[in-house]
Specification:
Strand content: 25-35%
Largest sheet: 8 strands, parallel
Number of domains: 3
Structural class: alpha/beta
Number of strands: 33
């Protein structure tokens, strides 16, 4: 349908007594969402950003939102919308959903003096009343099965089944709640199960493989998602990770550690290990564009993970924790990421503050979706956005979160097309119609491709890369560095703000290809640069290095002869050397002597002969060749010694 949005446009306050309008915008008839690569979009293809929080209680023994014993449900809900929360993740339990399905309702802990609007209502009626408030204030909702049983500590149990609650009950509970709210686009997402986890030495534990075993979370998630989407194909499906994943060469039958005490598994936060997606992604068939992966991540005040027990920063956390466990999913454009839980106390531990700021900055820079843990002040290990009176906001914590809330033109952006975030008269929020009115001022122009990387300082385990900058109509904000080994697919191994990158952790005597792509502030990405291929050294220690000097010795019509001088610039003798360059356009090697050459696309690689690889410090040798084409000297010649 065609919705006419009446009110101030993005970033513009309506004058007193005026009735300003924005241009008519053709929008979807409902607010359902889907995915495109690593983005979430509405039905018209407009990109959206889910930025919210969690409000728990329905998952617990009280079977209703916590805080209603003193706070008012309407005031709490409106305050979230006014402050830019556009989606609320609501933990529930399988047991609660089955009770609602059966029409079984116990008493709920609601102070009706503080909440007269809830007088006489059971838990399901309270939830339905709250959904109406969310619709009124432009909020969207994500349901999360937090535990099998209605238990304040139910999330500690690692699995989706427990006691009398079976996996089939888990599926049926999801089917019931999906059918009940089939036409209600206030609920736009289903987080299938909170934090599947467990370790090999403490079964049961959730695993991720291609089996149909009852403890295989991937299989259960696919089954639950397909049964939900068979009822409502418009819902976003969130799949969390697990806790451990086998290291290379290990299996799910491996013990926790080898006899030498080395770990056989990669560990991460509960729900935060999505390493299995790299080779075994979730398959939703025709509804793959409803899939979102949802890791959780916390700081040292929740648990002293190994990566907090040394000096760390945003770069080390990205390289050591976030990228290998889940960020690769976003960087490789596999699917969107929504960080379902992150947060904690501020001002008590400098490392905690550093972690939370670093993750907030990553969320903002990459445009990751998120629901902050938590609204509730009674979360023991994190505290909440609200203080103990369930009314006053923790302004320090909110100030940290605010940059990670969707804003446009100094207004918070909701996920409802017709209703402003905060309600019809809101002065702090806008609707999707207002966000995208007259094109919304969006930057849809991708940067140009960066230049082909040049390589230097090649060792057995690393190398230095530089490249020519990309250009953009607004401005390039960062570069993704991608690496491929042999004929394997390229994956992102780093994100930098400049035009250089130091590659580390490479394997000796191995061929690698590096390329880069540019990003701008709107999340547009460029095409990949041409790749740069090189081979690491053989290893063995010592300070080895070399230079290669290329010169044309003679030329003729249609060809030329060149010589490359190789010099050992290290402090120890070399056992071999490798020279690499990109052949200038239109050239090809005819014959080459005093070296052995290979050609891969435009990349020429020359290795020493058996008799001229050993060079003392400052020692030199040379090789020569004839070539067809113009006598252009390549600008990226490099040398590596072993």
């Amino acid at each position: 349908m065609l919705v006419l949005a009446v009110g101030a446009g993005p970033g513009v306050a309506a004058p007193a007594g005026a009735t300003p309008t924005v241009a008519p915008v053709a929008v979807p008839t409902a607010d359902w969402l889907r995915t495109e690569g690593n983005k979430i979009v509405d039905e018209a293809g407009n990109q959206v950003w889910l930025t919210g929080t969690n409000w728990f209680g329905f998952n617990a023994s009280e079977r209703v939102f916590h805080g209603l014993w003193s706070g008012n449900i309407t005031q709490i809900t409106k305050s979230m919308a006014d402050r830019g929360i556009n989606i609320v993740r609501v933990p529930v339990s399988t047991q609660l959903l089955l009770e609602w399905k059966a029409g079984t309702f116990g008493p709920v802990n609601v102070n009706t003096y503080a909440n007269p609007e809830l007088a006489g209502k059971n838990g399901l009626q309270v939830f339905d009343y709250w959904l109406q408030l969310c619709e009124q204030y432009g909020l969207k909702v994500m349901l999360d099965v937090h535990s099998a049983e209605a238990d304040n500590s139910g999330h500690i149990h690692p699995m989706w089944y427990k006691g009398s609650i079976t996996t089939e009950h888990f599926y049926q509970a999801w089917e019931w709640v999906t059918a009940r709210y089939l036409t209600n686009d206030t609920i736009v997402a289903m987080d299938l199960k909170n934090e599947p986890h467990g370790t090999p030495n403490q079964p049961p534990r959730a695993k991720w493989d291609n089996s149909t075993d009852q403890d295989n979370w991937k299989h259960v998630a696919e089954t639950a998602a397909r049964r939900i989407l068979a009822i409502n194909p418009n819902l976003l499906i969130l799949v969390e990770g697990i806790e451990v994943y086998p290291r290379e060469g290990e299996t799910w039958n491996s013990p926790n550690t080898d006899p030498d005490l080395s770990p056989n598994y990669y560990y991460n936060w509960w729900g935060g290990n999505l390493r299995g997606v790299r080779t075994l992604p979730v398959n939703l068939g025709a509804h793959q564009d409803q899939l979102v992966y949802s890791p959780h991540d916390y700081g040292p005040l929740v648990f002293e993970q190994p990566w907090f027990q040394k000096e760390f920063d945003k770069t080390s956390l990205t390289n050591d924790v976030w990228r290998p466990n889940w960020l690769f999913i976003h960087e490789n454009d596999t699917a969107p990421l929504l960080i379902g839980e992150w947060g904690g106390r501020l001002g008590q531990d400098a490392r905690q503050d550093k972690w939370m700021t670093a993750l907030r900055d990553l969320i903002v820079e990459q445009g990751l979706h998120q629901t902050f843990w938590v609204l509730n002040p009674n979360s023991g290990d994190t505290g909440g956005l609200l203080l103990d009176d369930w009314k006053t906001w923790d302004e320090q914590k909110y100030a940290l979160l605010k940059p990670a809330l969707w804003q446009h033109g100094n207004k918070f952006v909701g996920l409802d097309h017709a209703v402003r975030l905060g309600g019809a008269g809101s002065t702090t929020g806008i609707s999707l119609v207002e966000r995208y009115a007259n094109g919304g001022g969006d930057d849809t122009v991708a940067p140009t491709a960066p230049g082909q990387p040049s390589v230097s300082g090649i060792t057995a385990t690393g190398a230095s890369l530089t490249w020519a900058a990309a250009s953009d109509n607004v401005g390039v904000t960062s570069y993704d560095v991608l690496r491929a080994t042999g004929t394997g697919a390229a994956t992102v191994v780093g994100t930098v703000t400049g035009t250089s990158h130091t590659a580390t952790g490479l394997s000796a005597n191995t061929s690698y290809t590096f390329s880069v792509r540019a990003r701008d502030a709107a999340g547009n990405t460029s095409a990949l640069s041409p790749g740069r291929t090189f081979t690491t050294l053989n290893g063995g220690g010592g300070d080895a290095g070399c230079t290669a000097t290329y010169r044309v010795t003679t030329s003729w019509s249609g060809g030329y002869q060149a010589e490359v001088a190789v010099k050992n610039t290290g402090t120890s003798a070399t056992s071999g050397w490798t020279v690499t360059w990109t052949a200038p356009s239109g050239t090809s090697i005819g014959s080459l002597w005093s070296g052995r050459h290979t050609v891969s696309g435009p990349i020429v690689t020359v290795r020493n002969e058996a008799w001229n690889g050993a060079l003392p410090p400052n020692g030199t040798t040379a090789f020569g060749f004839t070539a067809n084409g113009p006598n252009t000297v390549p600008g990226d010649i490099s040398c590596a010694a072993s």
